[in-house]
């Protein structure tokens, strides 16, 4: 092998020979534990780069981590020999470089990984109709031609549609609107459509609830990053930017810290971000935040004295909200109740005191009081939340009570005050985009002819039992259509998610996969969904395409947009989603031009041409790219695209050379943003999206929308609901505090070694972050578990192994298992050695039906079998063809 790498590095080998040689030798690589065809031979690769033979090309970093950072690849003979990050301008706190994280910088190990899928393949014992279905996930693979592969897929799709209707085909990805389904979906629509999945994964209950009567996507956001520095206190509520918002957010928080801002973190563990910022830790058990915040509101109410101790901003509360007390109710009330009297215990005899809450949420009484006092009206407070606490069963009232406590202190719409979302690339830096691109604008807005849409938590049961409760995609804040339906799924298509692994209830998912007639996947490498398929179609990575992608526009850093180029030609026989979709259309007997009217290169060109940038004086947007006749000729020749000339801020050639456009920021610039400032200035003219036009502390629409589903009953104000699989249910006898069979709560944080399941097959990243089970020291001691011991974590849904990380910084009774580690199931024992958290997450829907990823009950013990080896020593899933 070493010779091969030397030759690559010295460029004495052509691309064709390289591909043939690496294809033949990947088995050898796997045995040596080497994760990538480029991870050895370092010095020679360095030599090639040092000889300045390659070309630096801005490259995509295209996964759903929300980072949006700069990645640049040094390409020598179609091989990326090095990567670098943003060096387009000097770095400063106000005008930071968009530096890539370790994952992004390891991208070439993903693209050139020894486990890259090279050819279309089918499992050996698959036959039309299913063959031996029990072998799914463990069968051998056979190489087939594209012609055979597409022929099989088309035949199975047509057969399912003719025999059972198009709704028997499940596209196990995201829901409509279709742009979330990737570029392949038009081909499924060509066959009459497909059943889809609704999973408000990211937002949990926060946006479907609808919080304060306002639809989430537009409205629960926060202020610009310069405003962070103006706060006295910043609350990081259930978020962890240093793991889950890589890119520049941690830097923004750090800059605020340097200006003297105090940080508070609320959550079940003292996480990395909290410790970086030296935040005060307010501990709260998973899924119990509503109880905690009700007690905060109660304490604010009890301690407030307008003269001697003004805590509550009554003027704000009465002017901008409805429903706090009986004198300020909205017009559409159906019950004569309000939050204030609920807090005081008027309806259930239970005042929501810190003592009451503490028993549930585990927060010391003095910390509840501390937090309530921090919310006071004479402090500048910014409450920035992620959605982890809303990714809990029955957390529908959480957003409403969180915003209520903020409104009680008057913390909206003024410099230094805010309460809103701080997720992904917008973490700590919210507001309208200063450089704007629109992915939705270049996607064909096709309508799925099938209206079946299954809630994520119910998905596998629906396949297995043939029934489900249809609640739609819950986008409309004021309405839910509920219908019990029969469903008869015969085909599962994995086209843009790794749903078998990222959806709750993996074991049930496997059963569902082994039931249906046909499963196919589009994939880069053998992730769980591909592994349990019959036919796998190899896709190109974004590095092999000149195309736009969803995460260029979505959850994006407001002050920069990236414009990567194709870095290398497609590897092996991989094709892009659109190429596969177009080719499949022909086998389905449909004209691809109808479904794909524009080539992917044309769509990318249009995406760039339509990009806009804020005018220098901040008064509106203007065209970003200048496009000349010369540019049109060049792009026409190279990519076959057409366009018009236009005048913009920067020439197209320069833009693509830089691979990004970033607006230079400075304190006091005209690009700042204070969320809700217009509403606070003129609440009549700038009514909110709720029915009353105000923040609804009594929200009839919320209660109606949730209650009609019939899984729980909430009040229009935020009342406390005992969560399914929450803390209370970890006891078999709550009153006498006798613990049940699964006495530990488990939450599943987004992990810094990967983006969901992406990059988890990169050995160096596995070595850098070990993905243990995090256990409280007291709990570990009780079970005789020490650091790095092998631990079996189990419940009625499955069993996984992890190495222990024993710590004081996670609450007793709580374990944390990072989200997204690759499934590695031992079929004999039923134990997953890969540590996939969704093996343990309960596939059951509660409340409005959002996924309760952070409310799960488990037990654990020291494992008696052979010790688990660290993940980085486990061989990759390399297919030998
Ligand atoms: N590295 C990396 N980054 C990512 C992703 C990834 O997979 N990897 N995924 C991206 C995506 S799509 C999303 S949606 C975001 C998610 O981003 P977040 O929602 O911020 O991520 P989490 O890690 O799930 O949760 C953050 C913190 O919430 C706390 N927490 C957990 N449960 C509760 C609870 O019930 N109450 C309270 N108060 N706190 C709780 C934990 O301390 C945890 O550290 O991350 C994005 N960024
Ligand atoms: N237990 C638990 N489960 C969770 C969460 C949690 O916190 N806890 N978080 C949830 C959240 S917030 C989210 S957003 C989801 C994410 O769930 P997923 O979207 O399923 O997660 P990814 O691992 O990002 O999978 C994306 C897949 O798309 C593929 N892909 C990437 N680019 C392309 C492309 O161009 N074409 C095609 N065809 N495929 C491509 C990748 O190979 C990968 O298989 O997970 C959810 N699941
Ligand atoms: S945070 Fe995400 S986008 Fe940024 S470098 Fe890392 S993986 Fe790439
Ligand atoms: Mo997400």
From TrEMBL:
Keywords: Iron, Iron-sulfur, Metal-binding, Oxidoreductase, Signal. GO terms for cellular component: outer membrane-bounded periplasmic space. Pfam families: Molybdop_Fe4S4 (PF04879), Molybdopterin (PF00384), Molydop_binding (PF01568). GO terms for biological process: anaerobic respiration. The keyword Glycoprotein does not apply. Residues 54-115 form the 4Fe-4S Mo/W bis-MGD-type domain. One of its GO terms (molecular function) is iron-sulfur cluster binding. The keyword NAD does not apply. InterPro entries: Asp_de-COase-like_dom_sf (IPR009010), MoPterin_dinucl-bd_dom (IPR006657), Mopterin_OxRdtase (IPR006656), Mopterin_OxRdtase_4Fe-4S_dom (IPR006963), Prok_Mopterin_Oxidored (IPR050612), TAT_signal (IPR006311). Signal peptide: none annotated. Belongs to the prokaryotic molybdopterin-containing oxidoreductase family. This is Anaerobic dehydrogenase, typically selenocysteine-containing. The lineage of its organism: Bacteria, Bacillati, Bacillota, Clostridia, Eubacteriales.
């Amino acid at each position: 092998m070493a010779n091969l790498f030397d030759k690559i590095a010295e460029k004495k080998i052509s691309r064709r020979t390289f591909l043939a040689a690496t294809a033949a030798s990947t088995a050898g690589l796997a045995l040596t534990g080497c994760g990538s065809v480029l991870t050895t031979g370092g010095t020679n690769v360095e030599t090639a780069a040092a000889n300045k033979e390659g070309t630096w090309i801005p490259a995509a970093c295209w996964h759903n981590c929300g980072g949006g950072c700069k990645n640049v690849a040094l390409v020598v003979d179609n091989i990326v020999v090095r990567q670098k990050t943003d060096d387009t301008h000097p770095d400063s706190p106000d005008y930071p470089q968009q530096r890539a994280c370790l994952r992004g910088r390891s991208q070439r190990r993903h693209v050139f990984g020894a486990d890259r899928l090279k050819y279309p393949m089918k499992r050996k014992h698959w036959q039309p109709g299913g063959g031996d279905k029990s072998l799914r996930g463990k069968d051998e693979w056979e190489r087939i031609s594209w012609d055979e592969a597409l022929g099989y897929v088309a035949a199975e799709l047509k057969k399912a549609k003719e025999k059972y209707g198009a709704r028997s085909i499940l596209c196990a990805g995201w829901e409509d609107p279709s742009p979330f389904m990737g570029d392949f979906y038009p081909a499924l629509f060509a066959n009459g459509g497909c059943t889809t999945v609704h999973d408000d994964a990211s937002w949990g209950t926060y946006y479907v609830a609808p919080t304060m009567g306002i639809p989430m996507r537009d409205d629960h956001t926060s202020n610009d990053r310069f405003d962070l520095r103006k706060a006295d206190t910043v609350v990081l509520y259930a978020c962890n930017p240093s793991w889950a918002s890589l890119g520049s957010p941690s830097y923004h928080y750090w800059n605020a810290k340097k200006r003297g801002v105090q940080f508070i973190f609320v959550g079940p563990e003292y996480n990395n971000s909290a410790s970086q910022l030296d935040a005060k830790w307010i501990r709260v058990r998973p899924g119990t935040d509503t109880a905690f915040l009700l007690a905060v509101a109660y304490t604010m109410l009890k301690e407030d004295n307008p003269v001697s101790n003004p805590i509550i901003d009554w003027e704000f509360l009465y002017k901008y909200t409805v429903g706090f007390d009986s004198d300020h109710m909205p017009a559409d009330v159906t019950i004569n109740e309000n939050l204030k009297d609920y807090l005081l215990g008027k309806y259930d005899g239970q005042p929501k005191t810190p003592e009451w809450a503490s028993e549930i949420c585990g927060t010391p009484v003095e910390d509840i009081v501390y937090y309530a006092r921090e919310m006071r009206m004479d402090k500048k407070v910014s409450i920035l939340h992620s959605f982890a606490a809303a990714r809990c069963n029955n957390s529908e009232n959480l957003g409403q009570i969180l915003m209520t406590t903020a409104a009680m202190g008057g913390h909206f719409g003024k410099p230094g005050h805010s309460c809103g979302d701080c997720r992904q690339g917008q973490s700590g830096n919210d507001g309208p985009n200063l450089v704007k691109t629109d992915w939705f604008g270049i996607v064909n807005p096709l309508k799925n002819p099938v209206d079946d849409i299954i809630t994520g938590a119910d998905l596998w049961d629906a396949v297995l039992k043939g029934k489900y409760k249809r609640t739609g995609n819950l986008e409309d804040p004021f309405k839910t259509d509920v219908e019990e339906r029969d469903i008869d799924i015969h085909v599962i298509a994995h086209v843009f998610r790794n749903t078998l692994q990222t959806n709750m209830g993996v074991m049930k998912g496997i059963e569902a996969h082994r039931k249906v007639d046909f499963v196919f996947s589009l994939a880069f490498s053998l992730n769980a969904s591909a592994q349990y398929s019959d036919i796998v179609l190899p896709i190109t990575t974004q590095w092999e395409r000149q195309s736009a992608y969803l995460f260029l526009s979505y959850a994006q850093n407001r002050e920069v947009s990236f414009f990567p180029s194709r870095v290398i030609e497609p590897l092996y026989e991989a094709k892009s989603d659109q190429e596969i979709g177009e080719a499949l259309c022909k086998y389905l007997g449909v004209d691809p031009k109808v479904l794909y009217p524009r080539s992917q290169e044309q769509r990318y060109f249009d995406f760039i041409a339509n990009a806009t940038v804020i005018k220098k004086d901040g008064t509106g947007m203007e065209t970003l790219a200048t496009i000349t006749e010369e540019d049109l000729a060049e792009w026409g020749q190279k990519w076959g695209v057409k366009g018009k000339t236009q005048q913009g801020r920067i020439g197209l050639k320069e833009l693509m050379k830089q691979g990004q456009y970033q607006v230079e920021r400075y304190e006091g610039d005209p690009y700042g943003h204070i969320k809700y400032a217009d509403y606070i200035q003129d609440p009549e003219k700038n009514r909110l999206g709720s029915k009353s036009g105000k923040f609804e502390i009594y929200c009839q629409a919320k209660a109606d929308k949730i209650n009609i589903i019939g899984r729980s009953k909430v009040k229009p104000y935020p009342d406390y609901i005992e969560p399914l699989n929450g803390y209370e249910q970890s006891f078999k006898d709550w009153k006498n505090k006798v613990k049940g069979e699964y006495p530990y709560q488990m939450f599943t944080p987004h992990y810094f070694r990967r983006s969901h399941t992406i990059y988890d097959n990169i050995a160096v990243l596995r070595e850098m972050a070990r993905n243990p089970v995090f256990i409280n020291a007291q709990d570990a001691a009780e079970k005789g578990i020490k650091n790095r011991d092998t631990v079996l974590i189990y419940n009625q849904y499955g069993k996984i192994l992890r190495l222990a990380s024993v710590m004081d910084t996670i609450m007793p009774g709580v374990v944390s298992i990072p989200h997204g580690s690759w499934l590695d199931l031992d079929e004999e024992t039923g134990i997953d050695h890969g540590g996939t958290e969704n093996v343990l997450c309960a596939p059951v829907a509660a409340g409005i039906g959002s996924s309760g990823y952070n409310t799960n009950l488990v037990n654990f013990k020291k494992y008696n079998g052979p010790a688990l080896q660290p993940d980085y020593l486990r061989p990759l899933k390399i297919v030998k063809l």
